[in-house]
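Notes from hallway chat w/ T.B., transcribed later so I don't forget. T.B. wanted the structure written out for a chain they're using in a teaching module, and asked if we could keep both sequence and structure tokens in one place. Agreed to drop them here.
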Amino acid sequence: MSNRPLRLGKKPRPLSGAVIALLVAMTVFPFAWLVLMSFKSANEIFAGAAALFFHPTLENYAKLLNPKFLGSFANSAIASTVSTALALVIGVPGAYALARPFSRKSRLVSILILLSRMLPPIAFTIPYFLLYRMIGLLDTLPGLIVIYLTFNLSLVVWLMRNFFEGIPPALEEAALIDGADLWKAFTAIILPLSGPALVTTAILCFLYSWNDFFFALILTRTNAATAPIQVVNFMNYEGWEWGKIAAGATLIMAPVLLFSLLLRKFLVSGLTAGAVKQ
């Protein structure tokens, strides 16, 4: 028998490291350029590469401190947070029911839920617009919350269903034997084990709602306009206000980026959850 030590993996090659570094640089460069642009004056922005060294200014951010933009920022936060919370409250129990043999034809129901996510959003534009105009939900926060909820539900169901299928049913059976009912077993055993998956699903749902531009453009005007819509308003006939566009985009990007960095451990473990079936 050979006494040579077992090699668990190959050493990383310099070429692989260079390729990874290049990909990271290509990914980060647009965001870094955007942030730098937000601290430049109009003259320095149009100077191009010659303005690599510049005098930072907060003028562009100061121009955004007005009720109109701050109100749109609040609209984005409210619509995204409420729709994400409702999607989790409704979708997580539904995903659990589809992951266990408690409901009939769960596979068919899962496919129908997936189809609602696969259809292009533009296919729902006219029906939603006409319905919202009829029932008075145009340019309202409840209208945005409902539209985000309908699309986030399918995402919650499919992500959480895959995770629940990886949890051994023996855990719930043991709880049932000890006298717990089905709801108690779900809330006391399954949900605590689902922390990483819940955080990952919540982040993805929040990202979809926060970054939405299409439905907010069609279904809002002024009262419920979100932050992305207000940033587009900086592109007018008089000219594009690049400094305010960059500052607004940076402010829109910052909360999600910070939130994801703080919860990155849960995000990584949640994305890999369910990869190995029990």
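Follow-up for T.B.: The chain has two domains: 14-51, 59-272. Might be a good example for the class.
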